[in-house]
Amino acid sequence: MATTEPLPPGAPSTPRSAISPDAAAKRPGEIKLISRSMLFYWWPVWVICFFNAAWTFLEDNRLAVLPGGGKVEVQKDATAPTEFKVTYPGETWKGRDYQEQPVRNAALQSEAGNEPWPTKVSRHPLLGVMFVLTLLLVIFTTNVPLRGLWSFVVALMVALVIVIISLVPGAWDKIFNLFSRFLVFINMGAYLFIGGVVFVLWAVAFFIFDRRQFVIFSPGQIRVCEHIGDSVEAYSTVGVQLTKQRDDPFRHLLLGFGSSDLIIKFATGDRREVRIQNVLGLNFNMAAVEDMIRTVPS
């Protein structure tokens, strides 16, 4: 049975074909770290989209789009519910007050016999505001790293602002009322479309493409595939330096469930450096990885 001899100290990278046909496969007793793309941190976007879509579906309010040149006539009768009629060129829509007559009923339809308004939208604009704020937070967090002192400063500023607002009587009520005036209405179909597209991209990256960027630690050897489509390169563990970068509490802890970034420096002539970003569970595997590179193969 053929075996792979460990590389001598300072050996250069070796193409995949020169190592073994299954160099990318993790064997028993090895540790494999997968580098995740920034798309991994976009899970709050599709979560908030699906939540808002479910809320809108259960609320079952409908969206009516009428031209500005239309004419609205309100007819009141003491013995009958308030009715309204909207007239504009080509169409006349009739219906009852939405508080007394749900617009999903067939009573609300055009005289031409068209279907009732099918578009569902929530009457709470805070749902749209929540989606926009979540999207902006994810964009900022995935593009602006805040490590070390900067993360502490930002967290301290946020805490200070919260304390100041809490000390002002009625301040939180005024803030919520202010945000409720930003009329961000998004219909259920838009939530499902955005959330579905983001979820598919996230799932494809997480379950397929991200698994092709990895580092495998074994006694005496480290196998690296730094980018998708690259060949697997092997290095000796002699002289290897591991550096775990400081975590970004907003990206790694808040959105990444404790992910971390790792820098590997090999003892080659050019001191090759490999950066493995967004590794899940690195904090739990770091001690095992350090023990692995110190192990001398028999």
Structure description:
Mean pLDDT is 76; it is low at 1-18 and 95-111. Helix 2 packs antiparallel against helix 3. With 298 residues, the chain is an alpha+beta fold. The protein has helices spanning 16-19, 43-59, 126-143, 149-167, 171-180, 188-209, 249-255, 282-294, and strands spanning 31-34, 71-77, 80-88, 91-96, 109-110, 214-218, 221-225, 233-236, 241-244, 260-265, 273-279. It folds into three domains: 16-35 and 213-294, PH-domain like (Roll), CATH 2.30.29; 41-60 and 123-208, no CATH class; 71-110, no CATH class. A hairpin with a 2-residue loop joins strand 2 (71-77) and strand 3 (80-88). A four-stranded antiparallel β-sheet has the order 1-6-7-8, with helices on one face. Strands 2-3-4-5 form a four-stranded antiparallel β-sheet, with no helix packed on it. The protein has eight helices and eleven strands. 37% of the residues lie in helices and 20% in strands.
